[in-house]
């Protein structure tokens, strides 16, 4: 590390790299854009070189900036570890915990779970970032969040063991969604000759895998991650779709019929976290509340 560099300014630089702009870093850090710009300018003066250049509407790090950002990431890891050690020693459920979760979890699980947690631990503040499973996993690994709610399907290959703990929380079924007035299909193969509406890459891969097992290749005409849009497209008789029960519970549109069919496996909800985070009372409290909430939801499915 360059002598004379203020480590607090390194963390500001790290936020700029993560957000891709001074404005984004300011929002993340709770500072003004002018204050972030001043911190970066002073850091450049301390380092004796340019660390940041404008790029389109954002900012990009120079080679020297990237070198310092790598050191800043190490510094952030040390500070997070120190905070977790202190929290574990104090045994108090308080402070901030960052959580990443996929959209349907944000809609049906988190409002109840976080409200219950606020009653049990009023000193604990949860910061939520919405992210699909790959991005949420990367956020835990990079230390941007402490916990991530992710999903996969029962028929997917088992995840390769890695540096993160993967705690299963529950499972819920996936339903076929067809226009109202139609006869409910008994098996996925009954929908082989229909046009399809697909969702996120992981959901589309699930559709393709299950369809292949049922003996057909789905004719995907429309794609959207919005489960409300999916239902309205089905209601307009533009195709059929698969949706997890949680998505249907979050919002049920008129003009569609949904239900379980043969040939589909369930969606599994899991919690990802770094092993050392389990020692932190605040992280444990959030994890326990999420487990409780998933159990209640899946029990009602």
TrEMBL record:
Keywords, comma-separated and alphabetical: DNA-binding, Transcription, Transcription regulation
Q: Where is the HTH lysR-type domain?
A: 5-62
InterPro entries assigned to the protein according to its UniProt record, in alphabetical order: LysR_HTH_N, LysR_subst-bd, WH-like_DNA-bd_sf, WH_DNA-bd_sf
Annotated Gene3D superfamilies:
Periplasmic binding protein-like II, Winged helix-like DNA-binding domain superfamily/Winged helix DNA-binding domain
Query: Among its keywords, does the record have Transcription?
Result: yes
A GO cellular component term found in this entry reads:
protein-DNA complex
Which PANTHER family does the protein's record reference?
LYSR SUBSTRATE-BINDING, TRANSCRIPTIONAL DUAL REGULATOR HCAR-RELATED
Q: Please report the name of this protein according to its UniProt entry.
A: DNA-binding transcriptional LysR family regulator
